[in-house]
Amino acid sequence: MTYFSIDESIENIKNPYTKELFKEVYSSYAMGNYRSATVMLWSVVVTDLVHKLKELDSVYNDPKALQILDYIRFEQSKDSTSSKWELETVKKFHKEINFLETFEVSNLEYLQNMRHVSAHPVITSTDLLHSPTKETVYSLIRNALESVLTKEALFSSKILDVVFSDLNTVKNTLVTFEDRERYFIHKFLNKMPNVLVIKLIKTLWKFIFKANDLDIKANRSINLDILEVILKNRRVLFLEFLQNEKKFISDLKLEDDLKEALLDFLIKNRFIVNFFEEECVQTIYAIIDDQNSEKKYQIIKHQRIIDYINYLRTTDTRNFIITNLEILEKNLLKIVV
After folding, report:
1. Which residues of 246-274 are buried (b: 16+ CB within 10 A; e: fewer)?
2. Domain range holding 89?
3. Looking at the structure, do residues 146 and 207 belong to the same domain, yes or no?
4. What is the pTM of this model?
5. In this predicted model, what pLDDT tens digit does every residue of 216-239 receive, in sequence order?
6. 42 plus 147 within the same structural domain
7. Number of domains into which the chain is organized
8. Which helix (H) or strand (E) holds 58?
9. 190, 263, 269, 281: least surrounded by Cβ within 10 Å?
10. Nearest to 229 by CA among 193, 174, 182
11. Which residues contact 228 (CB under 8 A, 6 or more apart)?
């Protein structure tokens, strides 16, 4: 069984209000009031889910979140005492926004059932009110923390639609790499779990280097900047993606603008060539050597900067551009340092 600590998990609860509510659950559990802890735990989970919906709606303009909030408001307006919407909301987090896995929904359904038998006068055959065991409540608490409370609202995989819609909106306002980096890190990247960042990298790679419809072409520049932002700020995760997706990244699309986008990316990140399958590398080199290709791309073929300098000494350097000069300067600084 993997390591787990309630105390450490409390510090990872994302919403400050939820964190304070959960401390009541933990206090009841620590004092042996397992029935009270179970009843309160369900309320904390539902409250936190509603807060996540409000964050997705107000901060990220997620239409799915708004739909679920409207559903809750409608159900409450019909019958303010009914709790029917609570479990249905859990299911919507699974079916509509992919926030919960199937097994997590099952665990939360069990929590709701335990909440009911702990809160209502269900009499056992021995005429005693039901009380869950310490072990059961511990398991319920762990499941709630791992499935809901310690997750960012952005854990939903469908939030990627919101991310790309947002980037489309700001692309003409935020035009420099620095502005785009600052904006994206603050609004999205710092709140994204690793699994979602991996999905975003793969989607960006597809949009930039594999897809060519009009909407995607219009956003290629900002998408490429965001890919660079992730590489710069989540480098280990990016390398993990490259290592695990060799076949995907090696499936080259050879339309002119897609080739150019890939080569422009590789100029700044020559090491990535090492992650392609060998046949793909040879194709990339053939594209670079084609007489119609710009000579600036020759730098991609030289992993050692000294080899590129030797190449420049023996060839026509009229196509040597400022980007290549910056690359040389950075490499020389590394050598000096």
Report:
1. eeebbebeeeeebbebbbebbbbebebee
2. 6-152
3. no
4. 0.78
5. 899 999 999 999 999 999 999 999
6. yes
7. 2
8. helix 34-58
9. 190
10. 182
11. 177, 265, 268
